[in-house]
Amino acid sequence: MSFDRQIKIAPSILSADFANFGQEIQAIEAQGADWVHVDVMDGHFVPNLTFGPMAVKAFRPHVKTVMDVHLMIAPVDPYIDAYADAGADVLTAHVEAGPHIHRTLQAIRGAGMKAGVALNPGTPAEAVAHLLDLTDLICVMTVNPGFGGQKFIDMTGKIRALRDMIGDRPIHIEIDGGVDPKTAPLVAEAGADVLVAGSAVFKGGSVDNPEAYGENIRNIRAAANGVWA
User: Fold this and answer.
1) How far apart are CA 188 and CA 38, in angstroms?
2) Was 37 annotated as part of a binding site?
């Protein structure tokens, strides 16, 4: 997984057909998805339950791009090896999920994955200032985590602060929450390069009508790249 700052669209399979994940993953990749985003929730750190390591391991054979696993769980550290074994390429932990995020990021990299750190809307950019040399990705939450389909919260000021803080380090800025063709230009202009989108990608489509996924992905990418052109 080499680094580049071209816009990447990472559909969240939280919005996919839960009875048909394999074909859904294949469909979004065939229609232009750059990464596949997997939202792991524990019903404790966030008020929802989704996927455990066994489900993520089942997704892995279908993912030919990058499997981007976002842990919305606490604690994180006891599960790092399980998600490494499941095949995660990127594993993101929340800075709010425990007292030793520095150790957590070291452990994620030590297990052979790229290390991501996520910030809830109420957490300032400065929370990751001393983590940058351990981080491959910073995920800026633009909704309060736990459910798909929420309204976008404007975090462009935080994104700009992070981009300035990162400088020339090879660190992605990922946006998770409320991304669609209207909000994508705002976050791209501020410095984001990985855009997670759930309902905005999957709306109107299915494995029997995957072209709708492709149109949605192209529309988000075009909106974001219109700023970068």
Assistant:
1) 21
2) yes
Catalytic residues: 39, 176
Containing 53, the helix (H) or strand (E) segment is helix 53-59
In the predicted model, is pLDDT for residue 191 greater than 50? yes
- pLDDT tens digits for 193-220? 999 999 999 999 999 999 999 999 999 9
- What distance, in Å, lies between the first and last C-alpha atoms of the chain? 24
**Is the CB of residue 106 less than 8 Å from the CB of residue 134?**
yes
Cis amide leading into 61 (omega within 30): no
Gap between the Cα atoms of 208 and 29, Å rounded: 14
Second-level CATH architecture of 6-223:
Alpha-Beta Barrel (3.20)
Residue 152 labelled as part of a binding site: no
Residue 199 annotated in ligand binding: yes
E strand or H helix at 224, and its extent? Answer: helix 211-228
pLDDT of residue 207: 96
Q: Mean pLDDT score of the chain, rounded to an integer?
A: 95
Read off the pLDDT of residues 129-152 as tens digits, 9 standing for 90 and up.
Answer: 999 999 999 999 999 987 766 789
178 in a known ligand binding site: yes
* Among candidate residues 83, 85, 91, the one with its CA nearest the CA of residue 109: 91
Distance (Å, whole) CA 17 – CA 213: 13
Please compute Rg for the chain using Cα positions. Answer: 16
